[in-house]
UniProtKB/TrEMBL annotation:
This is Arsenate reductase. It comes from the Bacteria. It comes from Sediminitomix flava. SUPFAM superfamilies: Thioredoxin-like (SSF52833). Belongs to the ArsC family. InterPro entries: Arsenate_reductase-like (IPR006660), Thioredoxin-like_sf (IPR036249).
Amino acid sequence: MHKIGDPSTIELYVRKDEYKDKQTIALAKSLGRNVHVHDIGTDAFTKTIWKDILKKLNLTPKELMNKANPYYQKNIRGKDFDSEGWLDVLMHHPFLIKAPIAVWKNKVKLLNSPQDLLKI
């Protein structure tokens, strides 16, 4: 895995089966940079990686979750965890993570649309 912030590579944290994420991957590749794609649904990530991403996004693990997801609504909503607990929820239920997330140079951005990639 590349070091987060590698200036030669755009790191994308995506769900490869999502349409918006596929569009983001295509746009990133069209920019003529190296693109390294991480599938948050299948690839394993350490807490250190997620802590680094969250710190650079200035978000908590809870803020990175899609609270509209039915699983979140049924199983997690209303529960109170400390920061490590929320990080564990994020790591054990990666399908709840808002995506895609782009890392380029020392910038990390949660992408609401593929075009947001052009803003980093």
